[in-house]
Amino acid sequence: APVSIAMHTPGTDYQPTIDAIKYLRECLPESQLVRSFTTFHLYFSTKHIPKQVAKQSDVFKTPYNCTLPPPYFNISSGHLYKSQKKLLYPVNVGRNIARDAALTHFILASDIELYPNPGLVKKFLEMIARNDAYLQRKAPRVFPLSIFEVEANATVPRDKTELQEYLRTGKAIPFHKRVCASCHGVPQSKEWMAANETEDLSVFHIGKRTGYFRHWEPIYIGTHADPHYDERLSWEGKSDKMTQGYALCVLDYEFHILDNAFLVHKPGIKVLQKDNRRAMLAGKTNQLIRKIIYPELKIMYGVRQGCVV
Q: What is the mean pLDDT of the chain?
């Protein structure tokens, strides 16, 4: 499937990113697939513009020397311009850029470290083509994917049956179970995990972002018609998808949870760690949402009982 990738490249992070893109497009056995299916969209703030920004038509005129190691090899986050300047990661700017640049009708606005199970695109489009009764409902809808973490030494499960075995043996857990379980808790999740895998893809359950799931931050397959993400929110400040979730709730979106589709985070299970800087930024973000963004959302989208930020 086509992939639209947005990359934050302030200051001196720009040129190494260009080199990394060239390497991916020119130096790998899969480079033909990268050239055919992947577009890259670089963004940075006006306060941190690179010294030189190549015209799009000139970027690939000079090929990368494929005898050199990958330009992203052995690069720690501490070496990045973003880290040295203590910049925040404007994750929602990237989400919106990548989404707007996507040429397909359906879009999975996901993070680069979340891997969908193989075959998802083909089976999803086959499901859409069947046009079952639940797809003919009048309410707007998105298709959220259940998300999981696996142990650092585990391979990523390729299908639901393998995922269920991982869950049974403790090699996998629901995403952020030890960090913020309610943020990614999915309606009917226990029933979903217990249900056997089937050949086709179908809607397992239709849920809402209310009740226990009122703070749900789903990652889903949607369309260009869905509300954008608020670009004032950063990754470090957390709650970056909460305001969009509120908009979906107020607009009475249905969440069509798919039976055999899921995402797995890059191996390694997260645990809650003390981070004073992020805690401070999260506090500021909560104030921004409460005092400024939430009143704006109520004006733009209205209110609905049970919908919260």
A: 95
Number of residues that make up the chain: 309
Distance, in Å, from the CA atom of 137 to the CA atom of 57, rounded to the nearest integer, reads 45
Q: Are residues 79 and 142 located together in one domain of the fold? A: no
Residue 177, pLDDT above cutoff 90: no
Number of separate domains in the chain: 2
Both 136 and 215 in one domain: the answer is: yes
The last residue of a domain, from among 84, 114, 148? 84
Percentage above 70 pLDDT, the chain: 99
Residue 67 is assigned to a structural domain of this protein: yes
pLDDT, tens digit (0-9, with 9 covering 90-100), for 45-94: 999 999 999 998 999 999 999 999 999 998 889 999 999 999 999 999 99
Is 134's pLDDT higher than 90?
Answer: no
Measure the CA–CA gap between 151 and 172, rounded to whole angstroms: 6
DSSP 137-169: -SS-EEEE-EEEEE-TTPPPPSSHHHHHHHHHH
**290 in the same domain as 149:** yes
* Residue bearing tokens 């929110």: 233
268, 149 Cβ separation under 8 angstroms: yes
Q: Which tokens sit at 30?
A: 């899969």
- Looking at the structure, do residues 49 and 178 belong to the same domain, yes or no? no
| Domain ranges, residue 75 | 3-84
> Please, are residues 48 and 104 in contact by the beta-carbon 8 Å criterion?
no
- Beta-bridged to residue 43, according to DSSP, are 8
Please, which residues have CB within 8 angstroms of residue 56's CB and are 6 or more apart in sequence?
Answer: none
In angstroms, rounded to a whole number, what is the distance separating the alpha carbons of residues 280 and 232? 16
On the 0-12 / 13-18 / 19+ scale of CB atoms within 10 A, 111 is middle
